[in-house]
């Protein structure tokens, strides 16, 4: 993605960070090298115990999975007020909804590039999505929300 943006919009300064040490890391590092993407364009951070500092210094989170269930990384980022851009797989559309982030169809590289440029160029959009995402996670996925829902379930069960 970064290589596409660097070619179509060289005026944009883009840097991606990849956290984790999964089995694809060495292949991703080789691919970055083949595409001419040095440390000024992509940084491999390795395993991180706490992603919050990364979320707080980032402009947005991009999740380009081919498949997912309910990705916690989206909920974590949104809880920190970080806007998200993700592929439309698994439970992603339910988490992001229509206004809490941008969703692109899986394998739509042109759409992903356009959405990425849109996120980069539009600070107001990122701010609004980050705010709505934070509100959504607080309301439906926080410990307080869980306590309220579980209490309601228990009370309904006990009243029968």
Provide an overview of this structure.
There is one protein chain. This protein has 160 residues and is an alpha/beta fold. The chain has 2 domains: 1-49, no CATH class; 60-160, Rossmann fold. It is 52% helix and 12% strand. It contains 8 helices and 5 strands; from the N terminus they run αβαβαβαβαβααα. It has helices at 2-8, 25-34, 52-57, 72-79, 92-96, 109-121, 123-140, 143-158, and strands at 16-19, 42-46, 61-63, 84-87, 101-104. The strands form 2 sheets. A 3-stranded parallel beta sheet has the order 3-4-5, sandwiched between helices. Strands 1-2 form a two-stranded parallel sheet. Strand 4 (84-87), helix 5 and strand 5 (101-104) form a beta-alpha-beta unit. The radius of gyration is 18 Å and the shape is elongated. The model has no long low-confidence stretch (mean pLDDT 93).
List keywords for this structure.
5 strands, two-stranded parallel sheet, three-stranded parallel beta sheet, 160 residues, 2 domains, Rossmann fold, alpha/beta, single chain
């Amino acid at each position: 993605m970064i290589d596409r943006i660097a070619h179509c919009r060289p005026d944009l300064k883009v840097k991606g960070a990849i956290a984790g040490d999964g089995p694809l890391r060495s292949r991703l590092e080789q691919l970055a090298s083949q595409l001419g993407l040095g440390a000024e364009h992509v940084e491999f951070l390795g395993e991180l115990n706490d992603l919050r500092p990364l979320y707080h210094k980032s402009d947005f989170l991009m999740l380009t999975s081919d498949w997912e269930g309910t990705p916690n990384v989206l909920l974590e980022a949104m809880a920190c007020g970080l806007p998200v851009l993700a592929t439309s797989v698994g439970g992603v559309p339910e988490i992001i909804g229509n206004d809490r982030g941008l969703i692109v169809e899986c394998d739509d590289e042109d759409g992903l590039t356009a959405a990425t440029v849109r996120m980069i160029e539009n600070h107001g959009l990122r701010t609004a999505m980050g705010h709505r995402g934070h509100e959504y996670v607080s309301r439906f996925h926080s410990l307080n929300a869980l306590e309220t829902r579980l209490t309601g379930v228990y009370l309904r069960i006990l009243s029968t």
